[in-house]
User: Fold Phospholipid-transporting ATPase from Ichthyophthirius multifiliis.
Amino acid sequence: MNQQDNNNQSQDLNKVLLEISSGNQISPSHASLNKDTVNFQESKDQIEILDYNQYIYNDSEQTPAGEKLDKQFQQAIIQRKSQAFRSKSLYQTILCKLQQKLDVNWEEKQQQRQLKILEDNTQYKNNQIKTSRYNIVTFLPLNMFQQFSKISNIYFLLMGMLQLIPQISNTYQVPTVYLPLAFVIIVAALKDICEDLKRHKQDNLENQQKCQKVNYQRMNLEEISSEKLYAGNIVKIKQNQPIPADLVIILTSDQKGGCFVETKNLDGETNLKPKYIQKQIQQKIYQNQEQVFQKKILINYEGPNPLLYKFSGNLELIRDDQKIQQCISLDEKNLLLRGCILRNTKWIYGVVIYTGHETKIMLNSYTPDVKYSRVENQLIHLILIVWFFQIFLCALASLGNFVFYQTSKYQLNYLSISSNSYENNIFLNLTINFGNWMILLLNFVPISLLISLEMVRFFQAMLISGEKLMKSSNGFYPTVQSSNLNEDLGQIQCIFSDKTGTLTCNIMNFKYLYLNGVSYGSSQDSSKNVKNENRIIENVNFEDSCFFDILENPQNEKQKDVFFALKHLSLCHSVICSETQLDESNDPLKKQIEYQASSPDDLALVNFAKFSGFEYTGIDNQDIISIKKHQERYFDLNFDKNNNQKNEQILNYKLLHLFEFTSERKRMSVIIQDLQTNQIILLSKGADSIILKRLNQKIYTQTEKGKTQIEQLENQLQQYAITGLRTLVLASKQLTQSEYEKWDIKYQQASVSLYNREEKLKNLMDKMEQDLELVAATAIEDKLQDQVEDTIYVLKKAGILFWVLTGDKKETAINIGRSTKVIDQSDVILEIDISEEQMLSDKLNEHLQRIETNKNQNNNKNKYQQKQFCLVITGESLSVIICNQKLEDLLISVGSQCRSVIACRVSPKQKKDIVTLYKNSKQGKGKRTLAIGDGANDVNMITEAHVGVGIKGLEGMQAARSSDYAIGEFKLLKRLLLYHGRECYRRNSITILYNFYKNVMSLTPMLFLGFNSGFSASNIYDIYVFQFYNASFTAFPIIFYAASDQNLSSKILVKSPHLYQTGIENIFMNKKEFFIWFFQGFYHSCIIYFVSMYSLDCSFDKNGRKPDIVFIGQTIFLLTIIIANMKVTIHTYTNYVFGYIIQILSFVSYLCFAIFLNFTFESYDLYNIFSRIIVYPYFYFSIIICISATIFFDFSFFTYKDFLYYMKISDSFRERADEIAQEFKNDENSNYSVLFQENPNVYQVRQTLHQEFTENDLKNQK
Assistant:
């Protein structure tokens, strides 16, 4: 083993360790390092590593370099585990314990397993699964622990305890705060119960599913619940039944030994996947159902792991514990996974190998952390600020009371305070008075806010889900699954998007065929691929008369090469055939072959071969592939198919081996034998970067003809990529019989090996796929989604960075970027396609310097005239960057200063890593991210981002189910963010600030009263009536406002992306705004208190009595209700009649309450108070003065801020006037012509933005 190999192994090993320690699935490129016999055992001081030699490629000898690598491995593992242990918080640790979660990685428990079939194997767990969080015993402690991990709940819990202390309580030791706290906790608990009951119900449905198990004692099939299955049981699964556990197939109803499964629940793909029985099992062990009850077998296989596409094992027939059959290898093709559904197959028998939480689908289940919006995180900080301010005020007030008592105690003899009373003890005096003031001002932290906010978000979610304009063309309405993130939709600063199926339709159409220096096909859409004799050839958009002439003219010298290329397309693929009867008759001539494929590219290629006269008709149980060569000219609408049946010819080929496509190999190959000539041929297709390296170098690098062919091919592929097409290169290799047989012996030996099997097979496949000869190249188009260009353009204009993460090649990704407006025509593209660490660092520094230089040179230009950049980086470069902190910082520094970033050739894991990297970076800290995708490979990215949006598309519903918001089309993202997101952020921010404001306004008068009462913590309000202040008298106007108010019409907001900057710049919710609202509450309370106190206290009623403190207190309370509700009206833009009705009803509810107490309880303090108030002249004087001094000031201040806001907008329009006028000058329907004048002023801007501001948007609601 040379030094370079050791270095490569060390790098690979470090990557594996990183994946293991993070608990992620090992990427396919490292899957070969995951061997079967690696076990980890933890002791008190160290981690002992067993059988580590399986991690070394050359396991036959242990070199000094290998020993050094061994030590590095042990040290790295210990370091990783130490870091993971330290990073786990106490809260997470307790939560895991309460939920009975094991804190281990699957690698640590992995070891080889052995099963004897038809014997009990109860040493392994049964098939029961549990996804619920609670049970009857654990619900209370676990839920209470979660509830009181919130700082607001902790605050009110402590305040309630203070209310229980006799010397402190002002509620007769009744913890009144526990009533609203209990309501909040009960609502949250009920919500958790409902969600967990759904999980319990789903678990029960899953566990109670019936399946047929082989009873080897009674020699029959017994029906049992799936939860009672154990490893080693044999089960029978019928068509359309779900697979209850991970099974190895041993018998099927199909004579070919195959079956089809739907994996939509597993990987999100809707296409059926083929699974097969190993031929030796079918031919030598289980030929019929009776033998399933009789023959014993022994299965050796790897321990549980989450790798969906990896499985290694072998099977042996035994009798009396003696092996009587040679080992038969097992791999992932023989494995049916839990969560799949059996399709198009009558029945199968399978051996259970993994059960319950050891199945691959359960090991892949990922529960993301609870997401909190940026506003919610700010709210926590505001609560802490208010809490500390409250403590400060209470400390000052208690100190004031102590000073007052010490200076005035000789004048307070009428209070009969004894010398032993707490007033004479400094510590007790300060402590008790501090507690009294804390109780008095406890609503400084508004508990009503938590309830109001949840109700508001719920109504907002209903409006989003029911809006007609959010309905997609395929009939899907949006789904809101995390309404607590509504306001985050208005603050998105970076979007991470998948490409295929998200920006494009994921409907592939064959477009071009390149052969012998000629590109066949047309850039125009073809209409001749639609119908011919009521037949449909899908996925083909091809038109070329020259190509059609070649097909029809046997004398054409090009026909031989064209036919071979078409045979290649019809033979090298993973398409599944199924026959469909066109009518009720059994006429074989009225059967139609349908294709299904896991890859839409394969579907397009096979359909093009059929379109051109080479129709793939399937493969039989002897692995014989049939190709029907015909002259059915699907490209000719006038061709009579019935007169052409005599020209049909069946071509047969024997499939010897199939090398499947993987993200690591980036190619697929088949070895076939032409039964017409007995010639053995290897056919390969894949990415040009892979296939071209494997071409015969003697032909293509050492001859002028070969060099010319490669040069022409690369130029043509470049042209295809420029137009956004997906390209594949086809190649072949002729094999001699002896050459194939020697290779096949090695391959069979490697396939039954339990150790290092994947690496051995990979090396043998790689050896075979060398010295290839070029055949052709193909180009497939993937159409863009509706309005995707306009959507991306508008989102970028809103100030949102756009990252596209795709698996396509670089050139294709760049062109798709241009066509989707991810890359503007004026953008400068910065490319990174380097895998060497130092060169990568130099390149990133070079790009960073270039961006900063451009920024310094264009400081005098406005931001719309400055040169913009787009970064394009490959997955190969990312794999190096993500392991290096310095390179990570450089990448984000460059990417955050580019308007867009395209990452190509990236894996699903890299997608998630990129989002995590951006979120945790210095530049991305505090910025809200959104990830959008439509497939199962996007789920981790979606759950990692602050906001995840799933598209209900062709690749299943897994992305939509795992997302926070699900929409039907990408274009709806524009409305979701620019209208719903912006408005939810604005309204929810004001709702939070308003709740703080109204509580400050209602509580500060009691602080002012302290100046008149020696800071004795006297309550100016009735303690019971005051409880309804937040619950009823001021609760509903703000809720209606937050659910329905519109600052501007949705049409204007969607077409004016710069208005979205209010959320990005955090205009409505920041500390400055908080202190403004806080000061307004303080100012209003000053006006209310001093006007009421000194106008009422200095006057007399008609009976000569001065108003007492109860009278004044109720006057102040009434004024706070009036002003608090009018404050909502000031901030309301949309005038709804129902809104005013709610305002009136809120005030009337207080009047009814006051009138009821006024006449009911004679002994109550409020008896006859309301009657005295309404006849007191100075009461009306107080109302007029207070409303004038507060509401008029607020309205003026609000109008001034509104003016400044529109002034800022007009400045923005003035900067962009030339650019926008050019873009919209031909738009006769534009509503913004006024805004694009040379010098629009603030009044013009405001008038134009409001000219369409009517209630028409209500028509868009269901």
